[in-house]
Every structure is written in C-alpha cells, then in structure tokens.
Amino acid sequence: MDSRDPDLFPSSYATNYEDISHRGRTGIMGDSHLPILNEEEYTDDAFIVEEKPVSSIYKANVTTAGSSHSLPTTTSSASFTDQSNHRSSALKQNERQLSILDPLSDRVSTILVWKNLTVHARPSKREEFFQRVKSYKKYIPKRKCLLSNTSGAITGGLWAVMGPSGSGKSTLLNTLACRLDVNTIVEGEMRLNGAPYDNAELKRIAGYVMQDDLLNGCLTVQETLMYAAQLRLPRAFTEEQRKERVADAMADLGLSHVHNVIVGTPLKKGISGGERKRVCVGMQLLNRPQLLFLDEPTSGLDSVTALDLLRTFHALAHGKSQEKAVTIVCSIHQPQAKIFNLFDSLILLKGGGIIYQGPRKQAMEAYRIAGFPCPVTTNPADHLLDVITPPRRNPVIDTPAISLEQQAAIDEAILKAQPSFDVDLNMGVNKRLAQMANIPPSPPWHKQVRILLHRTFKEQLRQSRIIITSLVQTVVIAILIGTVYLKIGNSQKSTTFREPSLFFCAVNQGVFGALMVINSFPVERALTLRERASGTYFASAYFIAKIVAETLIQIPVPIIFSSIVYFLIGYQATVGKFFIFALFMLLCSLAATSLALMVSAICKTTDMSVTVLPLALEITRLFGGFFLAPSRLPTYFVWLDAISYIKYTFVGTALNELSGLKLTCTAEQVAQFACITTGEYYINERGYGYISIGGCIGVLLGYIIFCRIVAFLGVRFLKN
Ligand SMILES: Nc1ncnc2c1ncn2[C@@H]1O[C@H](COP(=O)(O)OP(=O)(O)OP(=O)(O)O)[C@@H](O)[C@H]1O
Ligand SMILES: [Mg+2]
C-alpha cells in the first residue's frame, strides 16, 4: 500500500501522518509551527536526575565505574546478532566490559532470547468438550492469538514493555517468565543464555512481580519481608544478615515508616495500594535476582513514588551496587517523561505483535524516519503510543478517525524504519556456566516447614476473632445439646435419647470445621501458588506446616465440646469411655476439615467448593448410621455408607456408650416383658457390632490421611 496515498491520511493528520516515506526517509523535520523534539533534548541530560545513592539492597560489591547511560550507545540491542558484534567490536575492550547495554559485556549475566514466539489461548477443557459434543465433526477449536510470531532479545539494562491496554504486555512477560495460564499454547523458541529453560530454572535466578499483588493481609510489612527473607535467602545467611537485608529493602523502597503496619485485607485496612506494590517488589529484590520481571510496578503509585521506584530499578539494572547488573523488564503504562528516560531499551507492542524493539533513544529516531517526529511539548512515551493507537471517532466533537488501512500503513512505516533484525538463539551461551554456578542453595525442607509453621501460627493467631468466635460457638452449642438431652439416666426411656444425642454430636463436629476451611482455603491457595511459582518453598513444606498448625489449633474445640456435652447428658461415667468419646469427636472434626480441604483443593475456587461441599456433607449425614441402621442398609448403598466419616464416629461412640451399659426397668415394664437391661441388645439390634471401636478409629484415621493426600496432590499439581 502506498503510504503517500492522500486518501489514507486525512488533512487533519497532515502534521505527522502525511507522506510518511518521503518525509521519513529524507529526514525532513516537521512543520515549522510544531517544534520537533531532538533526541538529545529529551535524553539523559535533560531528564535523568542524579542517580539515587547506591541501592543499599545491592550494596555488596561496588566495583564498576561510570554510568552506562553516559556511554555512547554503541550497540543496538535491536540488532543482536553478528551485526551487533561487528559494531561492538569497534569499542575498546574495557568500554565493552562496562556497558550494560552491550550483550557481550561481562556485567550482563542474563540474556533472554525468543524466536517466532506465538501464544494462543484456547477455551478451557470443559468448554471445549461441550463444544465438541455439540457440533461433533464440524468443531474447529477457537483459538485467540495473544502473541503472533514475535522474535526478540532482552539483554542488559532496564527494559520497558509498552503498548496500549490489551496489546499483550502481561502475556509477553508471563510467557518469557513461564507463568502462563494453563489454557494457553506456546509455539516458538525461548532461550536463556543460549539454552532452553523452564520455570524451575527461572525461579532460581529470576523474580517476578505480577500486575495484581497478592499478599498475606494479616502480617505486617516487616514480617512479610522477613518471612520472605527466611524462605528465599541462601541458607548460609545468618538471622542478622537477613534482618539487615530486610531493613535495607524497606529503606530503599520507602517502606520503613510502615514497617509495623499490617498489609491489610478487604475488611481490615492496612498499607496503601502503592505500598503493597512496593512490598511485592521488595520481596523479589531480597535475594538479588539476575533477571527481574515487573508487570506494571507503577500502577497505583503517585508520580513521585513511581519515579523513585524506577530510579531504584535503574540503579539496580546498571549494577551500581554490585558487580553483575540485574536485567529488569518492566511493563508500563504511559510513563511520565522522567520515567521514560530512565529506560535503556524498549519493546513496543500492539495487538500481540512487536512494533518496535531496541534502545529507547533509537525509538524516536525510528519514528522520525517513519515520519512521526515527537513534538517538543509531547511526552515521548505518549507520542510512541499515540502514533500506533488509532484515535476513535467521537461524534460529539467530530474528531477525525483514521481507517484500519491507514493505521496499518503507519505501523508498517515504523517497522520499516528500524534496522533489520535477526535473532541469534545462542546468544549468551558463554555466560551460562558462570550464571548457574553462582546460585547458592536455599533453606532446606525442614527449615522451610519450621518457618511456614511459625508463619501459619502467627496468621491464625492474628485472626483470633475467628478462633474466639468458634470457641464461644462450641461452648454455646455444647450447652444447648447438653441441656436438650440433660441427664438422660439409665431408664428404658433413656434409650430413645442416647443414640440421637450421639448422632447429633457427631454431626455437629462433622460439619462445623468443614465450613471454616471451605471459605478460607481457596484464597490462601492463590497466594501459595504465587509464592511457589517464585520458588519460595516446596509445596510439601507448605502443606505439612499448614496441616500441623491447623490441627494443633483445632484440637481444643472438640475437647471442650466433649467435656461439656458428656457430663451434661450423663453418658457412662468412666474415664476411659470419656476419652474415647473425645477422641471420636476430634477425629470427626479432623475428618470434616480434611474433606473440606480435599474438596477445595480439587475445586480450586470458593464458588465451586461451596457448591460441592454441601452435597458431600449431606451424603455423610444421610449415611451416618442413624437414619439407616447398618443392619438395614441396602447393598447397593454400601459404598456410600463406607465413605461416611460421620457413620464411623456415630457407630464408634455408640459402641463405646452402649457396651457395658446397664439399664433399669420399672416393675410395670418387667411385667410387660418390655425390659431391656443391657446396651449390647441395641448393638445387636442395630447391627453396630459389624465393626469394633478400634476399627472405627482406624477407618477415620485412614479417611483423614486419604483426604489430606488427595488435597496435597491437588495443591501440588492443579495449577491455574
Ligand atoms: N488466558 C487468556 N485467555 C484468553 N484471553 C487472554 C488470556 N490472557 C490474555 N488474554 C487476552 O489477550 C490480550 C492481551 O492481554 P494482556 O493481559 O497481555 O494485555 P496487557 O497489554 O497486559 O493489558 P493491560 O495493559 O490492560 O494490562 C487481552 O485481550 C486479553 O483479554
Ligand atoms: Mg497487563
């Protein structure tokens, strides 16, 4: 298409859009009334403010000299191949070693290259299955293209990924960081220092701050960072060094004044949104990653804080405070000019394709060549996006709109104005050995369990309101049940109360705990997935810590319940029988929480979990052995009966209470032959004797272990 076609470019766009190729390629400046910003006018000298003092997070080995942005931009990071090698070979050796923008520099430890990368989103497996059933052979899977055939390389320095909303910034970051949704298909090649990589490798050397921050709301800022330091810093670190690192991180990110404030939950206000973001960044910076992905770290921050944060990133990316610089890739929306000028390189995305990539300074040049020089009064970042984003027609103020063809021609012109680009997948292969050798081991499994146990206890105790409420509830319900069946005694009449009261106790303990877990676990699970994705701990360490802490916190509830109920109702007054009753209440309560844990680990979301759990609970109640005595159970329901933990609790407590029970009769009852003197009669009559008390305890323990193993597998393998 001829970009000079007057039909394609309305007169109102003449300033920038007219005669792209002619004006662009001849380098003619814009209209005289609209001054054009010269590259040098908005670059470093004009905007880059004094470097922040050496980031204390990284203050270790300050050896390098010179600021790389003052070095000539000798290497185009857009032309990463032989071509760049030729060009950079013109540099003096030491200059090259110092330049963070030179991929060959020793200070750049990580080079990420991707070639012909295409990402598609497919419907979820369930949706695809129904569609396939509905349209049988005619079904063609619908795939949405999120990234289309992109190639590129991220070398050293601070990189910005820019583009309109929905252009694929997060998708590109997630793809490169191996954090994509399971319903996506990735084609193409990605290499880290010349070798294919996966999430396991990446999480040892890289950090990722996602667009939406997920944190534990009950902990304070300092505690959050301290737990992250304990879990993520190498095992050789002492407690003092960890504390120091946390204090430095808080100072660097301006969080010291809120160190004692809780992060906050939707119900309990904590730190501000910007501070939350900075806590997330701090957690990732603690262990000094070699590569850092940040998805919109500045959204929600005021301009001063955003600039401050970006200056910290700039200092880190330029290795001001350590020998090796961190490569930072940061997606960002409409940065102010001062922030924009801190970036070394740029990837500009539109509709899942890369419109520009390379040094920031050369982006303006490419636009100028394409015929879109940046007006002096315009923020260069805004200009980059304005040109590639077609304005929408506004019927009220009659703004002009440009057609799709016109916009395509503009995009094409910008692409053509860039140097040719050929990606070398082997780039950085010589850095690989050194990179992998530098990774110190993280804390061992048992230490992770200890730290997580401590953290879970702290979280639970911070939610003391819930614990106190559940204790009060237990006492109230125990007194109610106890007084309803108060002192049932040993008469013949007592038999009509004994079994219902035992069943009611089993149902109460078998439902209560489940409801608490089902609401809290799916939320916690999302945070855990995020923490595990960044290599903070093993899934097994988390799970063991969780169930140990929760079991210990759960134990008092059934004990208190049993102590009140047992004596108010007046079951057999034997120490051994009381302890067996209390043990059954405890096992029933643990079985309930284990079932809820399993359901929510498999269902993943709260919505789905609260839909499925009531059905499971209803079945366990219906087949609880009371409504349908084991002796009268139809054979086709045996399997449902077998999975009801309430049944084993009820039968176990019934065996405990009825065995050895002596019942009294009135003379009248004896005369009428309606006198039953032992509890064993009822055991035989109802068929409870098919299993022993020990058998019931064994089945309940097996049930708890089975549910927890399935829950663990769900937590370990079902990821979103
Ligand atoms: N898993 C997915 N399934 C379907 N569509 C998706 C998926 N992930 C992303 N998309 C779509 O891909 C496009 C790009 O999404 P992405 O989140 O990468 O945009 P973005 O540039 O980060 O936008 P923003 O600036 O608003 O964060 C959007 O249209 C989004 O709806
Ligand atoms: Mg995004």
Automatic annotation (TrEMBL):
GO CC annotations, alphabetized: membrane
PROSITE patterns linked: ABC_TRANSPORTER_1, ABC_TRANSPORTER_2
Q: Name one GO molecular function term.
A: ABC-type transporter activity
The entry's localization annotation reads: Membrane
Its placement in the membrane is given as: Multi-pass membrane protein
Q: Where is the ABC transporter domain?
A: 131-376
Q: Which InterPro entries match?
A: AAA+_ATPase (IPR003593), ABC2_TM (IPR013525), ABC_transporter-like_ATP-bd (IPR003439), ABC_transporter-like_CS (IPR017871), ABCG_dom (IPR043926), ABCG_transporters (IPR050352), P-loop_NTPase (IPR027417)
Chain ranges passing through the membrane? 466-488, 500-521, 541-569, 578-602, 608-629, 690-715
Task: Outline the segment boundaries, as ranges, of region: Disordered.
Answer: 65-87
Keywords assigned: ATP-binding, Membrane, Nucleotide-binding, Transmembrane, Transmembrane helix, Transport
- Pfam families cross-referenced by the UniProt entry: ABC2_membrane, ABC2_membrane_7, ABC_tran
Q: What Gene3D superfamilies would the database entry show?
A: P-loop containing nucleotide triphosphate hydrolases
Q: Which domain of life is it from?
A: Eukaryota
* Presence of the UniProt keyword Iron-sulfur in the record: no
Belongs to which family?
Belongs to the ABC transporter superfamily. ABCG family. Eye pigment precursor importer (TC 3.A.1.204) subfamily.
How is this protein named in the record? Answer: ABC transporter domain-containing protein
- The protein's organism comes out as Rotaria socialis
